[in-house]
Amino acid sequence: MAIKSMVDNIFVTRLDAVANWARTNSLWPMPFATACCGIELMATASSRFDIARFGAEVMRFTPRQCDVMIVAGRVVMKMLPVLQRIWLQMPEPKWCISMGACACTGGVFDTYAVVQGVDRFMPVDLYVPGCPPRPEQLLRAVIELQNKIKKTGTFDGREFAERTTATGPSPLDPDEIQRLRDANLQLRVIQ
Amino acid sequence: MNWQSVLRDCCGSAAAEHRFRDNICVTIPAESLHQVLSRLKNDAGFDMLVDITAVDYLDYPDAADRFGVVYCLLATGSGERLIVRVLLNEPDLQLSTAVDLWRGADWLEREVFDMFGIRFAGHPDLRRILMPDEFTSYPLRKDYPLKGRGERHNFAVITRAES
To answer: Contact, B138 vs B115, CB < 8 A?
Structure first.
């Protein structure tokens, strides 16, 4: 009798699949909210949109307890070392969502102080366009991230070890180098 | 004592007055700045320093001087406002500090130093306040390009495998 009921309660699966299933449904976000995208992030957590439906409601303000970093808002050059340090402090496995036009590309803030996309300096898994994005878009990103984890995730995280090159644009792309040359030329004329 | 007589005492004919509607701006020589501010505060009743800021007049039509440092004063007793302006040129970008008159001048002068590179002699702690300490330019100068000189790209790149 006891053995029979035990058999009903056992099923066989792959370890990776179990790990992915567990990780998928308990993504704990690190809210790196620096601007108006942070307000939308808060709205996403509120009862109207309710990110808890996807198991991602546990916003932790210490990186040591987080799985997914949500970079919401523009990142200035004084903030980028902080962002990188927080990213490095997060335990594996971890993912990154770049939320909004500013986090993805710098947005309208094409100035000396604003980093032109966090993906130039750190790995990003998902980009959410919008200025700021609607909460639905962020929820969509969470669902897409869950799909990504289900498809590519492994128990020991070896899919991360394969990503040895930076996937974002180069910090100094050819346009930027040309612009810097022009700016330096102009400086010499002024002096 | 009103501010006109303070200016007459301190600068004589060197002070130039400019009015736009109810906005009164006086331009004074840099060396008399501290004396004028002190007298305005103690004798003319301008007891509140509202703001210190600066203007870069590079490429400005009809401008003879490079920088203008602007002190906005308010007399809380009478409600009068007065704008005191000092003109500066390179390489002598130095003014005397107003921290001994108004403690609130501390951060305002640091901001002017950070953005324009104008130094304030006697300031207790003249460091950058907005930009990182290792920043080398003065970004609100007009000869500084809007998109910077590559400072925003000067960071290490972290790949996924090494993080």
So the answer is: yes
Give the mean model confidence (pLDDT) for residues B114-127: 94
Helix (H) / strand (E) element for B39: namely: helix B33-42
The reply to whether residue B161 touches residue A87, judged by beta carbons under 8 angstroms, is no
A113/B contact by beta carbon, under 8 A: yes
Q: Test B139 with A112 for CB contact under 8 angstroms.
A: yes
- Using the Cβ of A190 and the Cβ atoms of chain B, whether some distance falls under 8 Å is answered with yes
Averaged pLDDT score across all residues of chain A:
89
A84: amino acid identity, one letter: Q
pTM of the predicted structure, to 2 decimals: 0.86
> Residue B162 in contact with residue A126, Cβ under 8 Å?
no
Rounded Cα distance, A126 and A142, in Å: 9
Question: Residue-wise over A83-120: b if at least 16 C-beta within 10 A, else e?
Answer: bbebbeebeebbbbbbbbbbbbbbbebebbbbbbbbbb
With 80 as the cut, is the pLDDT of residue A3 above it?
no
pLDDT number for residue B98: 94
